[in-house]
């Protein structure tokens, strides 16, 4: 299930976010987390089964959202968690179109996600 990011989840969220190719440097990662905390249109969600095993981050526009970040714990990859996060997000924001970045496009296309 998707749960909205809170400051108390910062360490696990940073750990999962660090798997993204754009978030390898600590200063960049810290700035990204700050953006999710301070910008109303930046929204970060954690995927919780028994534990938190994934994150998905979006930037909202008026009629769409862009999937900026998506990451699953290495020990849970290949089990459909990423696809489930995308599906849950689509259900959360029906009617909004989905955009991707150069880092999330390939994964979203692999999910057969209708854009």
From TrEMBL:
InterPro entries registered for this protein in UniProt: Acyl_CoA_acyltransferase (IPR016181), GNAT_dom (IPR000182)
Keyword NAD tagged: no
Coiled coil: none
UniProt KW keywords: Acyltransferase, Transferase
CDD domains: NAT_SF
Domain N-acetyltransferase per the UniProt entry, residue ranges: 3-115
Keyword tRNA-binding set for record: no
Annotated PANTHER family: PEPTIDYL-LYSINE N-ACETYLTRANSFERASE YJAB
Protein's recorded name: Riboflavin biosynthesis RibT protein
């Amino acid at each position: 299930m998707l749960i909205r990011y809170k400051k108390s989840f910062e360490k696990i969220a940073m750990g999962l976010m660090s798997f993204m190719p754009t978030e390898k440097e600590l200063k960049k990662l810290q700035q990204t987390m700050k953006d999710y905390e301070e910008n109303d249109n930046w929204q970060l969600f954690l995927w919780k089964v028994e534990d938190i095993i994934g994150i998905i981050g979006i930037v909202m526009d008026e009629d769409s959202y862009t999937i900026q970040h998506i990451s699953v714990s290495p020990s849970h990859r290949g089990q459909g968690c990423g696809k489930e996060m995308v599906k849950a997000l689509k259900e959360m924001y029906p009617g909004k179109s989905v955009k991707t970045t150069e880092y999330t496009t390939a994964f979203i296309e692999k999910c057969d996600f209708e854009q």
